[in-house]
């Protein structure tokens, strides 16, 4: 084997690899698009969808302000919400998220995420209503004001079909290019006259055509 062939092998391989990628561009495009379509189909039609509804309320105490997050998600409120919407307490706890505004500690965001947009709306609505009914006098609150009413949002928050499709398409591109590269790396055939001359260290005197 000619040592010059070994020295120039990397440069030649890169050039040939690029040619091989261009040669297999149809294969790469097909696999890339196929993965994107499959992921789109799974995200759009198979994966369960989640819907959210939320509201913002302001809680004004008559005395010292407390963190009312635990009261909004406490059993006294959720027991009644559970009866109203037909969901067990454990399911409500998992679906409800209460966030206290760090800039204005009187403001709270109440959000529910379920697989039904109407159910998410009903949960949020009932949490606020039951808190007002049950906890205002008990906690000696001055007022509980709803800043914005919850809405029935029919657009799912997950899965993110667009994001998943882009990721699936990218994965398809990586897989298809990887297959072509691996196939190229494990191909030990001499691809042209120049490679044969460099590998053998002698000049090629003649070529025998494959077809007459």
What does this protein structure show overall?
The model has no long low-confidence stretch (mean pLDDT 88). A four-stranded antiparallel beta sheet has the order 2-3-1-4. The chain contains eight helices and four strands; from the N terminus they run H-H-E-H-H-H-E-E-H-E-H-H. The protein is rod-shaped and about 105 Å long. 19% of the residues are buried. The longest helix is centred in the C-terminal third of the chain and has 25 residues, at 161-185. With 212 residues, it is α+β, with helices and mostly antiparallel strands. A hairpin with a 6-residue loop joins strand 2 (96-100) and strand 3 (107-114). The chain has helices at residues 3-23, 25-46, 69-72, 75-85, 89-95, 117-135, 161-185, 193-200, and strands at 51-61, 96-100, 107-114, 141-148. Helix 4 (75-85) crosses helix 6 (117-135).
Rg, rounded, reads 33 Å
> What is the succession of H and E elements?
HHEHHHEEHEHH
The profile of the biggest β sheet is:
4 strands, antiparallel
Low-confidence stretches: none
- Sheet with most strands: strand arrangement: 2-3-1-4
Distance between the termini: 31 Å
SS strand fraction: 15-25%
Class from secondary-structure proportions: alpha+beta
Helix content: 55-70%
Number of DSSP-assigned strands: 4
Topology of this structure?
Elements: H1 3-23, H2 25-46, E1 51-61, H3 69-72, H4 75-85, H5 89-95, E2 96-100, E3 107-114, H6 117-135, E4 141-148, H7 161-185, H8 193-200
Helix pairs in contact: 2-7, 4-6
């Amino acid at each position: 084997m000619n040592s010059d062939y070994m020295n120039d092998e990397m440069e030649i391989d890169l050039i040939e690899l690029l040619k091989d990628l261009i040669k297999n561009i149809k294969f790469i495009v097909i696999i890339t698009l196929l993965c994107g379509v499959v992921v789109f189909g799974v995200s759009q039609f198979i994966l369960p969808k989640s819907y959210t509804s939320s509201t913002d309320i302001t809680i004004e105490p008559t005395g010292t302000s407390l963190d009312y997050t635990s009261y909004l998600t406490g059993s006294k409120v959720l027991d009644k919400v559970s009866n109203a919407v037909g969901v067990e307490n454990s399911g409500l706890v998992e679906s409800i998220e209460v966030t206290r505004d760090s800039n204005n500690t009187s403001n709270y965001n109440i959000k529910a995420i379920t697989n039904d947009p109407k159910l998410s709306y009903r949960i949020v609505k009932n949490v606020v209503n039951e808190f007002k009914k049950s906890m205002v006098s008990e906690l000696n609150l001055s007022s509980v004001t709803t800043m914005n009413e919850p809405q029935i949002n029919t657009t799912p928050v997950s899965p993110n079909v667009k994001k998943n499709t882009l990721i699936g398409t990218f994965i398809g591109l990586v897989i298809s290019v990887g297959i072509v590269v691996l196939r190229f790396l494990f191909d030990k055939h001499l691809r042209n006259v120049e490679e044969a001359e460099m590998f053998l260290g002698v000049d090629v005197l003649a070529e025998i055509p494959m077809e007459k």
